[in-house]
Design brief:
- The radius of gyration is 20 Å and the shape is elongated.
- The chain is built from six helices and six strands, in the order E-H-H-H-E-E-E-H-H-H-E-E.
- By secondary structure, it is α+β, with helices and mostly antiparallel strands.
- 54% of the residues lie in helices and 19% in strands.
- The strands form two sheets. The chain has a four-stranded antiparallel β-sheet. It has a two-stranded antiparallel ribbon with strand order 2-3.
């Protein structure tokens, strides 16, 4: 296999641009969902259970990482989970795949947290409409976390069919199988 392209969204866009785009996404998603649910629901909002909201807020990031691994269940022996702390208290978790895996599985692993976790939260918002503002805040926050995954997935969609994705320290490498050709006389 040879490397078709290397992708590092964090270097390509930079920390501040990603943070800014993520903040815009969070505000947009919250505004749209909150107004939409308020138009549909006639139930008043309640501010009880704020402790549960705080626990949910703290669990979003670890659950996001867990949902990254679901589509990679067949590759569990290749997955490496690491946790490091930034500023002595903020856990930064990373899910790394040590060997190349098919592009489809990698794209599914990138978008699965958004689909599953936001789906669960949206269901909660429709089921418990009095607490929909809590759920819409969590959906918006999680959508902001998913921005980097969407940027990577967008780059991977443009890669050739049959490609494999390998993760390294500088991002992702898109690997293409080398076709063996017959050269007469060699």
């Amino acid at each position: 296999m040879h490397c078709w392209k290397s992708i590092n969204v964090k270097k390509q866009y930079g920390f501040y641009r990603i943070f800014f785009l993520s903040a815009i996404l969070v505000l947009t998603v919250f505004s749209f969902l909150h107004v939409s649910i308020q138009l549909i629901s006639e139930q008043p909002m309640y501010d009880q259970y704020f402790l549960w909201f705080t626990i949910g807020f703290l669990l979003i990031y670890p659950l996001h990482k867990v949902f990254h691994t679901l589509p990679l269940a067949g590759f569990l022996s290749l997955i490496q989970l690491k946790t490091r702390f930034q500023f002595f208290c903020v856990p930064i978790m990373s899910v790394r795949v040590n060997k190349p895996i098919p592009k489809l599985f990698f794209i599914l692993a990138l978008v699965s947290p958004f689909l599953f976790l936001n789906g669960i939260l949206f269901y909660g918002a429709t089921l418990f409409q009095g607490y929909a503002h809590y759920f819409t805040i969590l959906i918006a926050y999680h959508s902001g976390i998913c921005l980097v995954d969407f940027l990577y997935a967008r780059s991977l969609f443009k890669s050739p069919k049959g490609a494999f994705i390998e993760e390294d320290d500088d991002g992702y490498e898109i690997l293409i199988p080398v076709k063996e050709t017959q050269y007469p006389g060699i």
